[in-house]
Hints:
By secondary structure, the protein is an all-alpha fold. It is built from four helices and no strands.
Amino acid sequence: MSKDKSTLNTEGHELEDPSPMVLVVQKYALEHYNDGGGWDYIIETYTDSELQQLVEMCDYQTENEVIRYIGNICRMWAERDVTAHNFFREYKV
């Protein structure tokens, strides 16, 4: 019996529900999507499983620790974005 396509990811594996901490990160990222701090990258580029890997890497104890850890990654993305925009503005590429 074939699986319903809506329950499969792009590799054909069954989707799992995101962990509660991944949902916390996604909620925070949505709330700060337009703040310019890089949280839009979390929404636009990270899958649930990639976010789960980030959560596990930070060895969190609290939601605030996870947000702070992933926030550092977001700041890196935001800094790269500003650098790229400045380059294009300066050199009119």
